[in-house]
Amino acid sequence: MNSRRYEYVMDEAEIREFCLHAFLEQLKYSKKTGIRLLVILAAELLLIPETAALTVLLVIVMVAAVGIYNYAATSKLLRGQPGSVWIEDGKLRARRRDYGEISCRDIKLVRRTKRLLMMGYLQRAGRPAWFMIPLRSFRDMSEVDMFLAMLRNPAAQGNYYDQTSQYSAGVGEADPAGQENTGADSANRIGQNIETGSPREYLRFQFQLDGERWVRLQKGAADIVNGGSLGKTARLYGMLVLGCVMLAALVSVSCLVAKKFDWLIVGYSFALTILLILKLYYTDPEKRIRRQLLSPEAAARACGLWQISLTEEGVGLTMPADIKNVYLWTSLAWLVETEEAFYLFHKDKKHFVMIAKESFQSWDQVRFFHQMCADHGIQKAAPKKARYVPLWLLAALFVVCLLVLFGIAMVRAALTKKDGPGAVLGEVYERVSLEEQVEVLKSLGLHVPEETAASIRNSMVEYGMYDLVEESPYTWLLTDMGAPTYDEEWNVTGYADEVFWFDFEGFDISADYIDVLNGMLALSEGSCLDDVTDIQEDMSDADWEKGRGTVTVSLCWKEQIYLYDMEMYNDWIDSEVLGIFNPLLEQEGSQRYFYATGDNGQGAIVFFCTPEWAERFTQKTGLVLEKETTKADEVR
Question: What secondary structure does DSSP assign to 50-106, as a single string?
């Protein structure tokens, strides 16, 4: 007596739901991969923090691409294909194209989604295989519960027959999905029915496999596919598409975030993509195959007696743990011979049947086997050598890649930022002629003295400074225009009224803060800062021997004393000094504030301007003006 058969064809919504849930379940078993990713991210954060964001993006793109690829492959397999699932004699049986069966006790995973009843088992450690029934095929949820009760306890099938015999079968489809190219894969179409009435049998083989032998035969099958013996596979095209998608996404997003095309980021993206593709597609699968035996269930299905039956219908396979499959002749496409075995490959190039050579009793059997395969249109293919990239080489290449990129980043940083603490960073710009620089500054309302332009022009000719001046545009002119004037004793005698420049490496740290603030006040003449008086420095908390400590800067404004603690770093000026006046201006609702940018060296270029002028200056020169704000540590 058979239990009720659930026959159906899955619709698009059910296929999408199955693909999504199967993919999410698979991610749950990727803990080791997640740990390795965290280690890589930690290394990147220490070396080049920006690359960590790219790695996260790469993983997101990779997961999305793999999910889409799996959906495309699985939906093609399921779409429009009728099938049936039922329980009989303590086994879950199913049919779709080919046939198979598995003991109910091996079904360890049961998931009930919105539209599906999904049932599966671990074909190897961390790799679930699924087959499913749409819930619409059941009369109601109570029938679903009865089916699951029978799955868990096949002895209860008598009650199940009584309660479900009155219902007619639905329409639908079932298929174990999510398998890959392994020995357990030949049982991945589990649950498919072996029709009543045995077809005529021509040959029968049997052989014993232990763990080591099973690994070798599985590796042989993987080498056949990876070596291209069966021609180019969808796996190869998937690799190319995945690589292109990942690279395009990384480059596009990184350039959008950085607002420029950065060859350093592009180079890292390319290297990371190549290494990941090599890891996914060109590493030796033997270690992964051996890991399958870590699962007791997978080991029980791998080690033991294997039986192969060649019938007029197809190739029957009985694996250890009493798992059975039948592949129709029309489903098989290639015959490949290696030193240890014959392999019959399915048309999908994933599933296969392996027959150990010692199971043949004579050369006549071998010739008859070849003739049967030829008569059913199975093509004989010669095995090609598979080539793999060692994991240690990939790890070494990744480390080298990180170190090279880190070195490039350090060289670039050395060329574009000043050496002291609190530095204002500069940028690298396109070449701009000195004449064009003068005209741009004039268009912004700045007065460029002729003697300044002439002095820089003479230096360009006399000392060959064309590259320095034209590749770091505007900074040389603004530095000269904003530098204070000094007497013979190096005392400040005057400040410019449009732009102020100073060097963060101070001349006399006990007076430098006073000079900087006075230079800024010269720019803001006529503003509320005219009331600032009595600027002083207190060096009592400075440790001259260690070059550390605190320099307390104080000033009087509107009858209040404001104190600011500046960090001491040898003779370097703390960049916090640039933000001292802006909070005072904000209290008065000023329209203009202090903005600063770097000079591509170790100095700062300061303006007293409106936000609109600062934005226009940045657009025309490429020098980014930033508004600093420093709150007083104490107000008396």
Answer: HHHHHHHHHHHHHHHHHHHHHHHHHHHHHTT--EEEEEETTEEEEEESEEEEEEGGG
Burial class (CB in 10 A: 0-12, 13-18, 19+), 189: buried
Strands 332-337 and 379-381: parallel
Amino acid 255 reads C
* Two tokens, residue 247: 């690279």
Tell me: the pLDDT tens digits for 338-367?
A: 999 999 998 888 889 999 999 999 999 999
Among the residues of 417-474, which ranges form H helices?
434-443, 450-463, 466-471
**Degrees to nearest 5, angle at CA 565 with 563 and 570:** 140
Rounded distance between C-alpha atoms, residue 26 and residue 118, angstroms:
14
Q: Whole-angstrom Cα distance, residue 319 to residue 308?
A: 9
Stretches where the chain sits below pLDDT 50 are 1, 161, 165-196, 416-429
| pLDDT, position 64 | 77
Per residue, the 3-state secondary structure of 207-227, as one string, reads EEECHHHHHHHHHHHHHHHHC
Q: Where are the alpha helices (DSSP H) in 227-354?
A: 234-258, 263-281, 286-292, 296-302
DSSP-derived pairing of the beta strands 332-337 and 323-328: unpaired
pLDDT of the residue at 424 = 38
Distance between CA 74 and CA 223 in Å, rounded? 24
Query: Are the beta carbons of 57 and 265 closer than 8 angstroms?
Result: no
3-state secondary structure 565-603: EEEEECCECCHHHHHCCHHHHHHCCCCCEEEEEECCCCE
**pLDDT value of position 120:** 85
Least Cα distance to 234 among 348, 81, 71, 75 occurs for 348
Residues 327, 317 contacting (CB under 8 angstroms): yes
Helices and strands (DSSP H and E) totals, the chain: 19, 26
Q: How many CA atoms lie within 13 A of 194 on its CB side?
A: 22
- CA torsion, ordered 561, 564, 568, 572, to nearest 10 deg: -90
Structure tokens belonging to residue 582: 């802006």
Structure token digits, residue 5 = 């058969």
Asked if 171 and 6 count as a contact pair (C-beta separation under 8 A), the reply is: no
Give pLDDT, residue 168: 37
